[in-house]
From TrEMBL:
TM segment ranges: 64-85, 106-123, 135-159
Taxonomy, superkingdom: Bacteria
Protein name (database record): Potassium channel domain-containing protein
Domain Potassium channel residues, every copy: 75-151
Keyword Cell inner membrane: no
Signal sequence segment: none
Record carries keyword Membrane: yes
Alphabetical list of InterPro entries matching this protein: K_chnl_dom
Cited Pfam families: Ion_trans_2
Keywords: Membrane, Transmembrane, Transmembrane helix
């Protein structure tokens, strides 16, 4: 039994540090433990949200889960050390009477040790357990310092998400409005210059989803600050302009190539850690029609050519629609 406790404690603490290392230092998303429980909580919230909207609750879920990640790591680390000091006889003793500590006192001893307080009423029984108690305090310091330094960049990144959405929706709230407000019907239109700055910002935002996977749980109660909805509208507008407008009425190819690459990058990286529904390949594209451009007196391509481009665009749009749903927006 004592050997089993020792082995379990070592495995548990190794899992905690591996999960923290992957989450904080890796650019491949969250660790398996963090991804499992945060994803489960978010799925549960979305199930409730789809029955009855709870945007305010969802907007608090991201910050709460961010703090909970640190608390879960610390709690599991403490559990591992409690199991470790319970794996032998008299590993922790009363400093005055030298009597072995029971389970309640060991929990108290581990708590004071990991917190760096060390009141001295309970101490390790003998060498080498004195060294292990020092190592326990060291592991706690490393874990808490690393994880707490991880919090502030995520908060800053969540604000950048809202800023990106506001920049896109600042031009127009819908696809027709976006095209009308930004496109002047010639290659030197305002949209050309706007694409350059937005493309770089979209790329930065996409890569932060890998560095900070918990960003996907930062929900805004205002749809005008939702990056998922903004990117979907932005991508639809660019698709209509680049594939629906006639060659003479399209923006220059380098601009379109650049912004499409940024949108593809966003769709790929943002969905790498997201919990996407299974219908992303059968997304509805009824809203994308050449009549939208005809009403603006923009010359359009042949219907057959547009339908071919639309089938190619459907897969990318499916990912963007799924990101909207994963963010709590239909």
């Amino acid at each position: 039994m004592q050997v089993l406790l020792l082995v379990c404690s070592v495995i548990l603490m190794a899992v905690v540090f591996w999960d923290a290392f992957i989450t904080v230092f890796s650019t491949h998303g969250a660790g398996p433990l963090t991804r499992w429980w945060t994803g489960g909580v978010w799925r549960l919230l979305l199930m409730i949200h789809h029955r009855r909207p709870i945007h305010r609750v969802l907007s608090m879920a991201g910050p709460v889960m961010l703090l909970a990640v640190v608390c879960v790591w610390y709690a599991l680390l403490a559990t591992g050390w409690v199991m470790f000091f319970c794996s032998g006889d008299a590993l922790v003793v009363d400093n005055l009477t030298q009597e072995p500590a029971n389970i309640e006192k060991i929990i108290y001893f581990v708590g004071t040790t990991l917190a760096g307080v060390g009141y001295g009423d309970l101490v390790p029984g003998r060498f080498p357990w004195t060294l292990w108690s020092n190592f326990a305090a060291f592991t706690s310091t490393v874990l808490l310092t690393t994880s707490l330094s991880y919090l502030l960049p995520i908060v800053a990144a969540s604000l950048e998400r809202m800023y990106l959405a506001q920049r896109i929706f600042g031009i127009g709230k819908t696809v027709p409005e976006f095209i009308v407000e930004s496109w002047q019907g010639r290659s030197s239109g305002a949209l050309d210059q706007y694409l350059l700055s937005l493309s770089a910002e979209v790329d930065r935002h996409a890569h932060k989803h890998l560095a900070y996977p918990i960003l996907q749980y930062f929900h805004s109660a205002d749809w005008k600050q939702s990056p998922g909805k903004a990117m979907l509208m932005f991508a639809d507008a660019i698709f209509l302009i680049s594939c629906g407008a006639a060659e003479s009425a399209r923006p220059p190819r380098p601009f379109i190539k650049l912004v499409n690459a940024s949108i593809d990058n966003y769709a790929q990286l943002a969905t790498a850690q997201a919990m996407l529904p299974g219908h992303i390949d059968s997304v509805n594209t009824e809203a994308l029609r050449l009549d939208t451009l005809r009403k603006m007196d923009i010359p359009v391509v042949d219907e057959a050519e547009f339908d071919l481009a639309l089938r190619s665009y459907a897969k990318r749009r499916g990912k963007l629609v799924a990101l909207c749903e994963q963010d709590g927006w239909r």
